[in-house]
Amino acid sequence: MSHWNQFKGDPRHAGVRRDLEGPTRVTEGWTADLVGPVGSPVLDRDTVFVGTSHGNCYALEREHGRERWRFETTGATDAAPVVTHELLYLGAGDVVYALDPATGEQIWTSELPDVTESSLALADGVLYAGHGTGVSALEAETGELVWSHETDAAVVGAPAVDSARDRTGGQGWGQQSVDEADLDLLSLEDAQMADDDAQPHDQDRVYVGTDDETVLALEAETGEELWDAPTDGVIVDGPTVVDERVYVADGSGTLVALHADSGQSWFTYQIQESFTSTPTVLPELDTTFVGASDGYLHVTDTTFGRRKLRGWLFAKKGVALDGEVASSPVVAGDICCVGDSTGSLYGIDLSDDCDLCWHFGLEGPITATPALAENRLFVGGGDRLYCLEWDPDERRP
Question: Is the pLDDT of residue 1 over 70?
Answer without folding.
Answer: no
